[in-house]
Amino acid sequence: MAVLVVDDLPRVLRDHPSVADLLAIRRVHVVATATAWSAFEAEVLDTFATLIELRLDDPTASRFALDVAWQVSPDRPGCGHAGEGVRVQIAAPVRHVGGDHHQYVAELTDAWTGPLAPRVRPELRLRIGVHQDDGTDCVLNFAGRPHLLIRGSDDLVRRVGETIANWADGRVFGAADAATVAELLRARRPRPDLPTRGRLLRDLWTGPELWFVATAGLDGLAPLIEFLPEGYELGFHLIAPDEGWSIRGLDAANTATLIGARARSSRAGTIIQDGRQRKVTLEL
Prior knowledge:
There is one protein chain. The chain has a 5-stranded parallel sheet with strand order 9-10-11-8-12, sandwiched between helices. A 3-stranded antiparallel sheet has the order 3-4-5, with no helix packed on it. A 3-stranded antiparallel sheet has the order 7-6-13, with no helix packed on it. It is 24% helix and 20% strand. The protein has 2 domains: 2-101, no CATH class; 125-282, 3-Layer(aba) Sandwich (Rossmann fold), CATH 3.40.50. It is α/β, with parallel strands linked by helices. It has 8 helices and 13 strands. β4 and β5 (87-89) form a beta hairpin.
């Protein structure tokens, strides 16, 4: 994920029209400013999901309710509103953060004594193409089906794996990181003495979603098998080729067989090349 902050976006677009292409890129979040709403082209303004209005030189040009626009104090920097009566106060950092912003966030967290804001849930739905029978979107929902097994050519496995790795909001790991991921997941499980009644397991740990993308070979993934049933609760998602889909003729202790069987019993989604599923035109 990347965050791009652009001061006076309308002027920047006039000087550098190609910047407009960034507004359509997935996982690029743009924060833009302008001195007036009229400075934005309508199609540019429509790309922004959230609009915040500070004190305007001319409150009658407000995009929101005029009475609220007049109430915004000109003497309080960062004071504004976001429509529908939502008040906004934007505060600048009290000191230079430097390169270690994680330390600064930790200091702010330790100093805050009020109630915590709700956790922001990551986006777990990925559109990968359209169904050929009716043209509707084909969407992978990793909240309902936390893992994905891919049965098909090496090229299909690679393309799907790379697409998810580039899209995933969190930390992405490869085939050599199974032991590391297993330790991270083990640390997310609640302690035996921690009361969990009435609380979701996802609320008992902090950190990013963990995406494990293996595009070939499952032999080294044995440390992850025990965590597959808790995928959503632990923020864990396995993307792997479906090498162990057929138990017939395979040793029950074979890692690929166990991965496939455990993942499917844990509500894994599947992509099957030339199978009997609904045909999908992939857009990867």
